Description:
Radius of gyration: 20 Å
Structural class: alpha/beta
Helix content: 25-40%
Oligomer: single chain
CATH topology of the largest domain: Rossmann fold
Order of helices and strands: HEHEEHHEHEEEEEEEHEEHEEH
Largest sheet: 9 strands, mixed
Strand order of the largest sheet: 3-4-2-5-1-6-7-8-15
Number of strands: 15
Number of domains: 2
Distance between the termini: 43 Å
CATH superfamily of the largest domain: P-loop containing nucleotide triphosphate hydrolases
Shape: globular
Amino acid sequence: MERLQHHWYRITPLHLLLFPLSLFFGALVFSRRLLYRSGILASVRLPAPVVIVGNISVGGTGKTPLTLWLAQQLIENGWHPGIVSRGYTKNGKRRKTAREVSIDDAADEVGDEPLLMAQRALCPVWIGRDRPAAASALLQAHPECDIILSDDGLQHYRLQRDAEIVVVDGARRFGNGLLLPAGPLREPVSRMRHADAIVINGGDAQKHEFAMTLNGSLFYNLLNPGTILPAGDFAGKNLHAIAGIGHPKRFFSHLEHLGLVVQQHAFPDHHRYAADDIALEDAEAILMTEKDAVKCSRFATERCWVLRVDAQVSPALTQLILKKVTP
Length: 327
């Protein structure tokens, strides 16, 4: 799939072969959604409201930061959220059995994003390929939880939902607008008409959309998290930056915005880091995202620094979701 990605943001001769496959994929997507909407395929209603945070495109759009932001907003409004996500095993397959994620888990056992969310320690985080089963297990283990947030769950139609939030990368948007494998879309753009909210990460939001920014200017040392430095303390140093996220350029641009000049090292999304990836002998500091950090902690050195970012979204989104989930 990674070899196809450079074809997703343009039209190339390869699309003569890919476009018919996209038409077939689109037919499958439409049929599957229709079967769930008609009740032919069964879906599960949980005893707690469910909010879906997802996207219609492949790759990172900012779902995880938004999920954490929403969890914090719900807590401040008296709710007790729990988060469910897919999770992965070492071989990259989705985890079949549901389990809770702890801060001591390894990223290659549970997945980088679930581990990142668990380390924020806002609420319980459970993973499993079967979202309804994972959510049910979470509610049974944590009866205080009264609302479920499903990270990257837009296409998991077996789990009935009370609200849907679609996150869009404001820079890349929808690429060439085609469905997989000819383009980056899991579902057609028209699918967003059925969502309750559309959040634009790092771009201009149109009417009825919500703008989201990722803010952060402090770095903590990966070996000694209590050691925190502002961006200005890295100015003038020989800096390297690594990013194994959906859109590495976003991270590098953020560093540039902070006034830092870095040598860039982009890796595929969900890249499984090895010690050699950060064996950058001339680096005085190696800067990374939190998502990278959870996979580098086992072989990190004192030169590794992590930028914490937090989503900023209009409070109007909080009010919209509260209205959707309040009886």
